[in-house]
């Protein structure tokens, strides 16, 4: 039950925690214009429209509210009433954000203030630059506040007013939701200053509330970059193991909420702040309970050899959990009791209803599923019926259904959930309907009604697909996993296997949308038929479920194959993590082997070093690689042989993305997968892959690289980059080189706009993370702005594509690596190519050796140039085999050749 509550809370985070309680329900800020005597007759019609918009907003009919306010704004503009126009447009932006339409809300705010100096895309780009500098500790003495003030000068220099305060609030919310938390914080501080200047307690509290939500989003984003046990280990081993240290990231948010709650005459904003305060305390408790428990359960994985330190960590984890319980639980109980009478006395309004619902949800998450909680939701449903707000009533009934589900009263839970669904047809309320459709599926599954559960989950799945443009920041991944789990339960039919494969493909798309926080990845309208693309390629779809590892395989001309291993999610992740850690840790020894070759002083030690290396390989790496081979390949190997499959395309799930499939090991034949005559490629799903072969006219490469290190990020020099680029120029005569200071954002964009380059090769430091703001490459820009954020790279490649006659066939990132411990980091690898229109990406899963990388890249390009009959996957395989199989090669260890992966189109 704890897991289900935790998953549900994440799924609903945007809807209840951010949207409903971030000031989007600020009815008091939906102000109506004051009519002048001169404009009374002309303004009557827009005033009526504005009032109708407010009525629609209260009733939850947000689309109609938007239409009314937009029409009112046009009429006010015609009448010359600029204040009325501005207010109507800001109200429009508020409703747009309530629908999750953040990009549209930004444009509406800029229109409200007649801003022509920049648009929302340019605002995002400037925000990226500021956030990027903060990540890199560049210009750390400068304040984002001053930079933001310069950017928003057209708004900030306008006279202080309620409109200005609310408009800045909406812009701050937009920037937070699109991933620019620190910039959002600065914008919201300007909103707060403006609200105080016009002496508005309501807007002052709204700004403090949104600042709290933003500080919370920043803390959660930083925290979620790593597994919970890693976060707990850092606090226990590096920060004294105190509860104060553990809760420090949340303190700014708690401070803002507490400030907001103390502002007098703030209407309902103070109550919203207290409700958010309560939900944050519960979030903190749930996270740290999970983190400390996982740390205690997984100590053996940490590779700690010092027994004293290991015992210190074990004891510290127990003590931290105890301290957090003593500190958080009394606060949660006290605040819950303090809020009870306040919530009970709320009026029958949109704000009152959703405040009741939020309070009830916090009680449910505490395990308080009693008659009192049920009564709170029943009153919310009654109030919603009274004001004819179908969406609010559906929310109340849906959560009431969830309460009965927790009590295992499934019949009543089903009845209430079905009522909620009937109130919000997908044509009118898709952003609400999908959640209750999912809940109905979950309940029916508990009742062992598999056909009914499948139908309900399919309805939720279809609603989400239709809503894709509005859900880019909503974590719907758990719904997809639950649906696949039910589809693959028992003995699935071919139709159910096909549906499961479609869901897995869609999951890849959703994860990319969440990575970039907007849904711009192009999706094929019709499913790609693998038989029509490559009759010698099989596509393998693993998915990690709670208690089993499922695999669906597509072989040309054959029915879908399904096989599985009964194993817990934790055991799968433990095996994967150990393999990656061991393969990545051995380079310390491997580097000794490389550096001592030919060195007289250490030549006598060489044999022992090589022996140690082989022992480590045999004991710490190959057994784990064998295990994963048995999970993914062995069950289907006879079919692969029978149907003469030559290429394996993996659509990987979760932490499986962090290990190279090429190094999976067949213990029976004592060979790596790459040695078994299989080309290996990764894909984000065939819906996103443009399966066209590499054009074989003379290949022209745009090759850019940086040999210098970046001390502030502890990135060392990579001197072999220059040699790597020279080799490319030797093989492809028409190529262009940008080295060190020549490689800037501007120069890269200029070259891409001037000429077609089927291959773009970037040999530079970089990091790929599960969040786009932590994903970057390093340029040689002498001005100091060296980091190119993944979104900036995406924009550079896109801008170039507008003037190119041919797409980028291959994007090579030869010195980048994925963030260690980040299960979703490889999304960045796939995302760059997919979003920019490049057909495939060649990159590394970890920071491979400089010399080995240079050699492998030379072999790869030579293979492409010398044999027009091989595709990109074959060229990469042959290059890797050259490092692996050449007699006396110093690069036989998988650390050197395995991390290179081809993502996307393998042809």
TrEMBL record:
Which key words are in the record? Repeat, TPR repeat
Domain CHAT per the UniProt entry, residue ranges: 623-905
Q: Which Gene3D superfamilies match?
A: Tetratricopeptide repeat domain
Query: Cross-referenced SMART domains, in alphabetical order?
Result: TPR (SM00028)
- The stretches annotated as TPR repeats are 394-427
> What's the domain of life for this entry?
Bacteria
Q: Spell out the protein name for this chain.
A: CHAT domain-containing protein
């Amino acid at each position: 039950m704890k897991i289900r509550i935790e998953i549900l809370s994440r799924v609903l985070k945007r809807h209840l925690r951010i949207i409903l309680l971030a000031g989007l329900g600020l009815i008091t800020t939906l102000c109506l214009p004051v009519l002048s005597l001169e404009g009374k007759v002309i303004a009557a019609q827009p005033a009526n429209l504005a009032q109708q918009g407010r009525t629609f907003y209260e009733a939850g009919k947000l689309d109609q509210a938007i239409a009314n306010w937009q029409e009112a704004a046009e009429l006010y503009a015609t009448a010359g009433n600029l204040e009325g126009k501005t207010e109507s447009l800001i109200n429009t932006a508020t409703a747009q954000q309530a629908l999750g339409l953040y990009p549209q809300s930004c444009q509406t705010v800029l229109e409200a203030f007649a801003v022509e100096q920049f648009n929302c895309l340019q605002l995002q780009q400037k925000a990226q630059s500021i956030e990027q500098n903060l990540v890199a500790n560049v210009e750390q003495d400068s304040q984002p506040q001053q930079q933001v003030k310069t950017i928003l000068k057209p708004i900030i220099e306008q006279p202080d007013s309620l409109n200005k305060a609310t408009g800045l609030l909406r812009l701050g919310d937009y920037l937070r939701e699109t991933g620019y938390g620190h910039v959002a914080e600065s914008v919201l501080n300007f909103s707060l200053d403006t609200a105080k200047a016009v002496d508005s307690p309501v807007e002052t509290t709204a700004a403090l509330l949104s600042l709290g939500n933003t500080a919370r989003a920043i803390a959660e984003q930083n925290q979620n970059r790593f597994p919970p046990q890693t976060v707990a280990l850092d606090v226990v081993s590096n920060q004294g193991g105190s509860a104060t240290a553990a809760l420090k990231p949340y303190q700014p948010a708690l401070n803002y909420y507490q400030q907001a709650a103390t502002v007098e005459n703030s209407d309902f904003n103070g109550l919203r702040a207290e409700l958010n305060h309560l939900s944050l305390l519960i979030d903190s408790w749930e996270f740290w309970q999970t983190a400390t428990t996982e740390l205690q359960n997984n100590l053996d994985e940490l590779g700690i050899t010092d027994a004293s330190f290991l015992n210190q960590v074990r004891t510290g984890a127990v003590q931290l959990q105890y301290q957090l319980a003593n500190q958080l639980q009394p606060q949660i109980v006290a605040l819950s009791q303090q809020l009870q009478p306040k919530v009970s006395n709320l009026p029958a309004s949109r704000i009152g209803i959703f405040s009741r619902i939020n309070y009830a949800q916090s009680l449910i998450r505490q395990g308080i599923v009693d008659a009192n909680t049920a009564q709170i939701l029943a009153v919310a449903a009654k109030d919603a019926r009274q004001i004819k707000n179908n969406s609010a009533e559906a929310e109340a009934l849906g959560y009431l259904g969830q309460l009965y589900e927790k009590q295992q009263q499934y019949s009543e839970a089903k009845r209430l959930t079905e009522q909620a669904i009937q109130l919000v047809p997908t044509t009118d309320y898709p952003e609400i309907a999908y959640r209750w459709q999912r809940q109905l599926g979950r309940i029916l599954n508990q009742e062992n009604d598999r056909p009914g559960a499948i139908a309900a989950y399919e309805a939720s799945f279809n609603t989400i697909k239709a809503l894709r443009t509005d859900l880019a920041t909503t974590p719907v991944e758990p719904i997809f996993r639950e649906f696949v789990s039910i589809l693959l339960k028992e003995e699935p039919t071919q139709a159910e296997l096909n549906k499961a494969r479609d869901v897995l493909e869609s999951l890849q798309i959703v994860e990319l949308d969440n990575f970039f926080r907007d849904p711009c990845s192009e999706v094929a309208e019709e499913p790609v038929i693998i038989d029509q693309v490559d009759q010698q390629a099989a596509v393998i779809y693993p998915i990690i479920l709670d208690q089993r590892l499922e695999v669906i395989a597509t072989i040309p001309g054959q029915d879908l194959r399904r096989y599985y291993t009964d194993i817990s999610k934790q055991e799968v992740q433990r095996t994967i993590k150990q393999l990656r850690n061991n393969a990545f840790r051995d380079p310390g020894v491997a580097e000794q082997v490389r550096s001592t070759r030919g060195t007289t002083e250490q030549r006598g030690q060489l044999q022992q070093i090589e022996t140690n290396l082989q022992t480590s390989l045999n004991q710490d790496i190959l057994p784990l690689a064998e295990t994963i081979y048995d999970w993914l390949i062995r069950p289907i190997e006879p079919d692969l042989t029978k149907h003469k499959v030559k290429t394996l395309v993996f659509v990987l799930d979760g932490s499986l993305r962090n290990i190279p499939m090429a190094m999976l090991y067949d213990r029976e034949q004592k060979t790596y997968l790459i040695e078994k005559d299989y080309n290996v490629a990764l894909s984000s799903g065939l819906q996103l892959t443009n399966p066209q072969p590499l054009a074989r006219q003379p290949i022209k490469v745009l090759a850019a690289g940086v040999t210098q290190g970046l001390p502030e990020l502890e990135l060392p020099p990579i001197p072999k980059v220059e040699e790597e680029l020279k080799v490319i120029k030797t093989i492809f005569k028409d190529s262009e080189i940008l080295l060190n200071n020549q490689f800037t954002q501007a120069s890269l964009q200029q070259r891409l706009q001037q000429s077609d380059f089927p291959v773009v090769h970037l040999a530079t430091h970089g990091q790929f993370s599960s969040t786009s703001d932590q994903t970057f490459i390093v340029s040689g820009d002498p001005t100091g702005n060296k980091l190119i954020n993944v979104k900036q790279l995406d924009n550079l490649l896109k801008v170039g594509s507008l003037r190119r006659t041919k797409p980028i066939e291959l994007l090579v990132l030869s010195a980048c690596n994925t963030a260690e411990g980040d299960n979703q980091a490889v999304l960045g690898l796939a995302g760059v190519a997919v979003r920019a229109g490049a057909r495939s990406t060649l990159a590394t899963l970890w920071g491979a050796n400089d010399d080995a990388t240079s050699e492998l890249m030379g072999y790869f390009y030579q293979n492409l140039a010398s044999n027009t009959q091989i595709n990109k996957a074959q060229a990469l395989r042959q290059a890797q085999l050259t490092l692996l199989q050449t007699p006396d090669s110093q690069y036989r260890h998988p650390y050197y050749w395995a991390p290179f992966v081809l993502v996307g189109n393998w042809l």
